[in-house]
Amino acid sequence: MTRKVVLAGGTGFIGQYVEKRLTALGIEVKIISRQSPHIAWDDHQAIVQALDGAEMVINLAGKSVNCRYNEQNKREIMNSRIETTQILGNAILACEHPPALWINSSTATIYRHAEDRPMTETKGEIGSGFSVDVAKAWEDAFFSFSLPHTRQAALRIAIVLGPGGGVMTPFKNLVRFGLGGHQGSGKQMFSWIHVEDLFQIILFIQEWESLEGVFNCTSPNPVTNRELMATMRKVMHRKGGLPASTWMLNLGARVIRTEPELVLKSRWVIPNRLIKEGFMFKYGRLEQALQHILHTKS
After folding, report:
1. Alpha carbons 255 and 266: distance in angstroms, whole number
2. Which interval of the chain is the signal sequence (predicted)?
3. Verdict on whether the full-model pTM lies above 0.90
4. How far is CA 296 from CA 135, 163, 260, 289, 290, in A?
């Protein structure tokens, strides 16, 4: 019998990577998306049919946070996460043979700005502000479902690095055009994860049936922003780069219609649960990850 996995929100950078890797393993991937020709979010019956008999559903859906936080965008960011999570939960309840595992995205930005100590699943302090409100509401919606036959895991995902897209494109451009110095103070922590390690975490949680709840999905070796940019310059063979002060970032963010928080917030997050469970990172060090990403054809 063909193995089947449902991938919700599977048309973005991470989703495309996960689909490609699952397909390479001989797994049939059903995608739920607002984009044709995939299963539509408002087609309840088709979603139930896709989920029925699937071994796992992975939800990556949500409007990009790379935008200005005006009222309309804030509403769309929140609703795109809550509504899709609720749709999936209700569809699982309607399944005759529900998936054994439901993995839902969350975000490592749920923790406070931290330059003093790392945040773990048990000792991390939840922050405040819009991004944190979204993360909390997202997880609340996910864990509000009581699913007797479906294990649930929320992945608090850090900045995902990988070949062919994601945040690597703007970082590469900054370095290429001589602007690859540190941003703001440069002391803010940068928690990150290679997209292949994120994929392997999904398989790891699926394999070990005792695993459920919240998991920090980050490399065990976060770096400062200053170290990030220095490593980027090293890997790209650039000797120097102009830094960007906080006021410049605030001004620039307005021009390119994004939020400076994406660069200035100090995310110092450690994957304590995964380490304790014995997960082994393939790309645990930033230079190692960047060497692979920047020298891999997408």
Report:
1. 23
2. none
3. yes
4. 32, 6, 29, 11, 10
